[in-house]
Amino acid sequence: MALLTAVANWTNSSGAVGAESSDNLSSQLAAGASAETAESVGVHLLVLGGNQSASPEPPQHRANLTNQFVQPSWRIALWSLAYGVVVAVAVFGNIIVIWIILAHKRMRTVTNYFLVNLAFSDASMAAFNALVNFIYALHSEWYFGANYCRFQNFFPITAVFASIYSMTAIAVDRYMAIIDPLKPRLSATATKIVIGSIWVLAFLLAFPQCLYSKTKVLPERTLCYVQWPEGPKQHFTYHIFVIILVYCFPLLIMGITYTIVGITLWGGAIPGDTGDRYREQLKAKRKVVKMMIIVVVIFAICWLPYHIYFILTAIYQQLNRWKYIQQVYLASFWLAMSSTMYNPIIYCCLNKRFRAGFKRAFRWCPFVQVSSYDELELKTTRFHPTRQSSLYTVTRMESMTVVFDPSDADSGKSSRKKRAMPKDASSNSCSRRNSKSASTTSSFISSPYTSVDEYS
To answer: What ranges does the record give for the region Disordered, renumbered to this chain (predicted)?
Structure first.
């Protein structure tokens, strides 16, 4: 979930070397630990990390120590390819999503503004964090300087916070639009204020990681880590707090809102006498909600193994000596980072306007053809909302009084028939109006100020 760089200790089979604090490392080196001992210091929790913990071990002879985390070239090549694909797809895919929304007026809706924020967060995290953490995990050495060490520990938590709370804002917005359609939607200004507030809270949450970031230059090695004033216990507490705040709590909120929305959209029978506009809006709402549910579920699945990894290795530190712990970390970290690349693919597959936008972006490819229908999908449609206080207009019926003259029965019958016809016609017309009015009062329908474009 939240990302940040931290150094911990991957130890070899002969013993553990502390990478938690500079004091532990310095004391070991001063006590006579060989330079080869430092080889066992690796990267552990590069994404929601912080401080690392280990206890000093007695100095050992250089010949008895080997670095078990040196990988063969073919394995390094495979991991490099896997991480490279994630970064390329995430960065370029999310940039195209941002372009589709900002370059086309029809796409500038409340939901899509939050999707812009989500895409920016994912692209930034993939570009500035994924490869750097991968290189650090692979070589166990920090190459990027003290300033980037602070940024690397600070920005990932910020980006993940912005991502998941953008999804939470979309869930709440969908809930309000569908459950309470008469309530005014968020304006463009209010949406920008919400997005700005999300980033401010993200900066505040991640600030301790920047404040306590350290770099330590050792013989043959440079480390980047977070040194908390009160040690590993404080780091573990902070990390659990971050997991709750940027994983458990927002997923709980989204789970509740999407469950209620899903029951509303799919749980009830559709009234029989409904117009085409009603069915069109209902279908569009279902598509948007379905797309966002998939986005949230994939995010939760991708980040779950990483959080489990952190908690288990923090509680059972002997797992850091396991032979395959580096591979487990690289796999869980790759899965977490891959969450940044799936959203553009989901949008393209499940939304016709995003699909048209991707076709326009890749129209230079020989196998991509942009049809006239695709062009029309992204053009602005003129919609003039009815400025009325309710969803339907109450029509007033004028009554008619019929006088019956018993002296002229035939004439009276004829008169009644002639006069009854307008009344019956008016009654039928009223019945049709009431039927249509009743259908529009359903909770599925949107307010008169919302067009179908808001849900497509």
So the answer is: 405-456
pLDDT of residue 65: 40
Helices in 324-441 by DSSP H: which ranges?
Answer: 325-350, 352-361, 372-377, 409-440
Q: Looking at residue 45, what is its pLDDT?
A: 37
- Dist. CA 23–CA 225, nearest whole Å: 13
d(CA 110, CA 302): 26
Lowest mean pLDDT among 334-338, 340-344, 445-449: 445-449
Residues 6+ apart with CB under 8 A from 2: 47, 48, 156, 157, 160, 161, 205, 206, 242, 243, 246
Which token pair is 193?
């204020």
Tell me the CB-side half-sphere exposure of residue 94, using CA atoms within 13 A: 26
Q: Own/partner pairs for 255-258, CB < 8 Å, 24+ apart?
A: 257/171, 257/172, 257/174, 257/175, 258/171, 258/174, 258/289, 258/292, 258/293, 258/296
The set of residues, in sequence order, having a beta carbon less than 8 Å from that of 414 and lying 6+ positions away, is none
Among 123, 128, 132, smallest CA distance to 162 is for 123
3-state secondary structure of 223: strand
Higher-pLDDT residue of 195 and 39 is 195
Model confidence at 371, pLDDT cuts 50, 70, 90, reads confident
Residues counted in the chain: 456
Rounded to 5, what percent of the chain is helix, strand, coil?
65, 5, 30
**Using one digit for the tens of pLDDT, what is the confidence trace for 281-326?**
788 888 889 999 999 999 999 999 999 999 998 888 888 888 888 8
Q: How far apart are CA 38 and CA 29, in angstroms?
A: 9
Angle in degrees, CA 83, 89, 92, rounded to 5: 130
pLDDT at 140: 81
164 neighbors 121 (Cβ within 8 angstroms): no
**Nearest 5°: CA angle at 330, between 121 and 81?**
80
Q: Which amino acid is at 101?
A: I
Reference 106, options 419, 424, 351; nearest CA is 351
Query: Is the model's pLDDT at 10 over the cut of 70?
Result: no
For residues 407 and 412, give the distance between their C-alpha atoms in angstroms, rounded to a whole number. 9
Cβ neighbourhood burial of 137 (10 Å; 0-12, 13-18, 19+): buried
Whole-prediction pTM = 0.71
Tokens matching residue 380: 């602005």
Question: Domain locations in the chain?
Answer: 62-355, 409-455
Confidence of residue 233 (pLDDT cuts 50, 70, 90): confident
| Residue 454 tokens, joined | 């808001």
In the predicted model, is pLDDT for residue 267 greater than 90?
A: no
